[in-house]
Known about the structure:
The chain has about 375 residues and is α/β, with parallel strands linked by helices. Helix content is about 40%, strand content about 20%. The chain has two domains: about 1-145 and about 335-375, Nucleotidyltransferase, domain 5, CATH 3.30.420; about 150-325, ATPase, nucleotide binding domain (Nucleotidyltransferase, domain 5). The strands form three sheets. Strands 3-2-1-4-7-13 form a six-stranded mixed β-sheet, sandwiched between helices. Helix 5 (about 150-160) packs across helix 14, helix 6 (about 200-210) packs antiparallel against helix 12 (about 265-290) and helix 8 packs parallel to helix 12 (about 265-290). The longest helix is centred in the first third of the chain and has 25 residues, at about 60-85. It is an enzyme of class 2 (transferase).
Amino acid sequence: MKAIGLMSGTSLDGLDIAYCDIQGNYTDTKVKLLDYREVKMPHHLKEKIQYCCQTDGGHVQDICSLNFELGSWFGQCTKNFMDERNITSIDYIASHGQTIYHIPEDTKNYHKSTLQIGEPALIAYKTGFQVIANFRAMDMAAEGQGAPLVPYADYLLYRDDHLDRILLNIGGISNITYLKKGCLEEDVYAFDTGPGNMLIDEAMRYFYGQEYDCDGKHAKRGRLCEALYQELMHMEYIHMVPPKSTGRELFGKQLAHVLFERYKIPADDFITTLTYFTADSIAYNIKTFTNGCDELIVAGGGAFNRTLLERLQSQLPHVRVLTQEEIGYSSNAKEAIAFVILGNETLHHHYANMISATGAKRKMILGTITPSTKEVFK
Ligand SMILES: Nc1ncnc2c1ncn2[C@@H]1O[C@H](COP(=O)(O)OP(=O)(O)OP(=O)(O)O)[C@@H](O)[C@H]1O
Ligand SMILES: CC(=O)N[C@H]1[C@@H]2OC[C@@H](O2)[C@@H](O)[C@@H]1O[C@H](C)C(=O)O
């Protein structure tokens, strides 16, 4: 089958489009990336998403409207990509959607819940092909956290009989999948370690009006602020025992701006400290909650931040830290490919939640299917 995976993650930097060939399913899955493109998120959409993510921000009419506006944009980007690359037919599109809120556990006032928007009907209408979306809901229905979902794909693609491996994704949030050598599905262990690029990006926006710290250059220049570092390393989430998942609610703009008010230090010292905190919270979670590994394979945009990776390597001296590029894959396309795999399982009526990662009570078939509109066009 030919399929397209769409991923718009917590960084809000853009839409990843991965065009793949996929054969078989579950442990027989063979997937090949045929083409990839990232479409930058237009500024006005990014602002609307950020507004809707805030508890004192988006009202119901803003979220209602953005759901359709984003679906339309996802659909148009996919259509443009297919036209440019001369792709005339695909079997399905798997769309993650844009997470605008995630409540992993019941709280006093709220039911555990998660919301990914970007109306699939618009994507199906614009492209004409069936769309599989809303992957997290069924895992949550089965009492899981609805995240992380990528570990299922990691298990299919990266398990090894001779090496203990950890897959790390440094997106807006960082998450790991631990695959010990010869592991069975029930041995897979995966969770969000804490922030990825989210806090660093907030600081770059605040101090320099830039979207991110390109190659970690600012972090390389600054010095660690011990008081800020200690405050961050003591945050409750970092020490919580998995399964655990998190998001913008904890490590987003609100936290960043409290810190900017509290610590009046040079901009680059801020960025260095946030970068070291990001690396060290990942390393701490690996050391505390896994048995370590031979290889740590890094994906996500954070794989391009050299200062972050150098710090990570220094915290894990006995581990080979590699990027997806170094093993012949793509750091940017990895999550979009994972959603192609999850969509393929939906069409095979096969479960795709890794219950050891999400904490769900049962293995479930994920996703909702919006049918192709091609027949109607005829
Ligand atoms: N050259 C680079 N140098 C430093 N950082 C970079 C570079 N390129 C990308 N990034 C970082 O990567 C981020 C985007 O990462 P990615 O696309 O993996 O996140 P995401 O998929 O939105 O997040 P998540 O996986 O949490 O949902 C950017 O916001 C930026 O911080
Ligand atoms: C609720 C939500 O959107 N979570 C994302 C987010 O971004 C990274 C991390 O936090 C992970 O838990 C998850 O995404 C990936 C794709 C996952 O489900 O594995």
